[in-house]
TrEMBL record:
Keyword Transport: no
Coiled-coil stretches noted in the UniProt entry, renumbered to this chain: none
Keywords: DNA-binding, Transcription, Transcription regulation
Organism expressing this protein natively: Halopseudomonas oceani
The protein's name: ArgP/LysG family DNA-binding transcriptional regulator
Length: 299
């Protein structure tokens, strides 16, 4: 039988990013957390953590974390169906991974009514849409948004819609670097803005222009800061049309290729055995997300 106190210690260490924070969360000493991890590894006969900074789950640890995520959701169903089990239970916390651009645009409107209705607290982990599945694979989250259709084992995926990305910059930046259009300069030497090392949108745009090789870019791991950088004339970048509707209308930003956009599909991935709560969130997203994602086209 699995000892869920030991599994709770493992989950806390990974989710909190360290032994000290895990100890604070569970109200234990750091030594007690360490002892629980060692006992879990002794019983399993294999390591569950790579002692790095932050600690990372091993393959065996990931399987256990996936199990913990699903058990938490099933326990919530029991509390809902049998309230006498724990009449003082508070709000349920649910960990999901999503890309920063969704968080900055349509996500809040899609989930706000459901969170209030179901008394859920979201623990939202930011991950680029191209690689969000690694959070599920590592057992850190119960669901994620990503651009990949194929789910991990034990999960389902559902297409919610597409986010349209535009190549934009400030008018002053365009006049300075592209006075005669994109063909007037070596785009590799014109600074871009890139969200992070997993953000490949600017790379794809340059390749579509027929340009290969490295290019100059700033790193800005903030969706709001990204747009501010573009407005200030620091560089050009790929931004969701949903996020810059007002800036385009006011003339603060302009499109490098008017009428062109890069569609990026968004798939919702969730555990098959995630219980009623996860099924409910999935149904809510299926109802609300398509219209929210299409708002830039309709507007």
């Amino acid at each position: 039988m699995l000892d869920y106190k030991l599994l709770a210690a493992l989950a806390a260490v990974v989710e909190q990013g360290g032994f000290e924070r895990a100890a604070n969360l569970l109200g234990l000493s750091q030594s007690a957390i360490s002892q629980r991890i060692k006992l879990l590894e002794a019983r399993l006969g294999a390591p569950v953590l790579v002692r790095a900074s932050p600690p990372q789950a091993t393959a065996a640890g990931q399987r256990l974390l996936n199990h913990v995520q699903q058990v938490r959701l099933l326990e919530r169903d029991l509390r809902h169906d049998l309230p006498q089990i724990d009449s003082d239970a508070g709000r349920t916390r649910l960990r999901v991974a999503l890309n920063a651009d969704s968080l900055a645009t349509w996500w809040a409107a899609a989930v706000a009514p459901w969170c209030e209705r179901e008394r859920v607290l979201l623990d939202q982990q930011l991950e680029d849409q191209d690689v969000g599945l690694r959070r599920m694979r590592s057992g850190e989250v119960a669901a994620c948004l990503c651009a990949v259709e194929q789910p991990v084992a034990g999960a389902r995926s559902m297409l919610l819609g597409e986010m349209r990305y535009l190549a934009v910059a400030s008018p002053a930046f365009v006049a300075r670097h592209f006075p005669s259009g994109l063909g007037s300069a070596d785009v590799r030497k014109v600074p871009a803005v890139v969200f992070g090392p997993d953000d490949q949108l600017q790379h794809r745009f340059i390749r579509q222009l027929g340009v290969e090789g490295d290019f100059d870019y700033h790193l800005c791991p903030s969706s709001e800061g990204f747009v501010r950088m573009l407005q200030a004339g620091v560089g050009w970048g790929m931004v969701p049309a949903l996020q810059v509707t007002a800036e385009l209308r006011s003339g603060q930003l302009c499109e490098l290729l008017p009428g062109w956009s890069q569609p990026v599909p968004l798939y919702w991935h969730y555990w098959r055995t995630g219980g009623q709560l996860l099924e409910g969130l999935t149904a809510e997203l299926a109802r609300r997300a398509p219209a929210l994602l299409a708002a830039d086209v309709q507007g």
